[in-house]
Amino acid sequence: MKIMIVEDDLSLAREIFLLCRKWDFDTEYIRAFEHVEAEFMRIKPDFVLLDINLPYHDGFYWCEKIRTISNVPVLFLSSREMNADKIMAMASGGDDYMEKPFDSELLLVKIRSMIRRAYEYQKNDREYLADGGYYDSAEGVFTYENQSVELTKSENKIMCALMECRGKVVEREKLMQHLWNTDEFVTDASLTVLVSRLRSKLRDISGGKEIIGTKKGRGYYIL
Questions:
Q1: Could you tell me the residue range of the domain that residue 70 belongs to?
Q2: Are residues 99 and 137 in the same domain?
Q3: Which residue in 46, 48, 182, 211 has the most C-beta neighbors within 10 A?
Q4: Domain Response regulatory, which positions (predicted)?
């Protein structure tokens, strides 16, 4: 999960940054507060920590901008205590609100809880790879760095079978049987073509990285 911190107190931003990194979150804090929306598009975060008092435009403004392009969880961090500010934070599209100063452990719990609520359902159908890509079996889509490619029916079945046996070689015969069990007959030669096309698709979207490995004479596996 990637966290974007929008906090103009850079000492506090760095403190939060180090805390999030300690918790194994991929984290970045911005310095270009006149271009928060552009920074959001560049970073492509899964979670946003957003201050209210910012230069150029306040956090409410930027939250509304973010909401036009994304539904990522947004947690407001602010020293403002008025209920009107909390209401405004929610009305602008925020998901929750924490007052400064805050306890670091409470912030951790809040972030984890919001991420779990936002992404738990999606993760049930998603298989994440070590380098950041993921495969969504329900949608039949492979995504890498926010670029997606849709798999064909046959490619999706092959990818699903490989992911189910992740870390192990899936025999060619087992893949063919898996396709036959879903009323799709393939020959040994056609399986080779299908896997080759699938590997090419994944390679193209992941910048040349191989996602599927080959065990010569046996079968295939997820790298």
A1: 2-124
A2: no
A3: 48
A4: 2-115
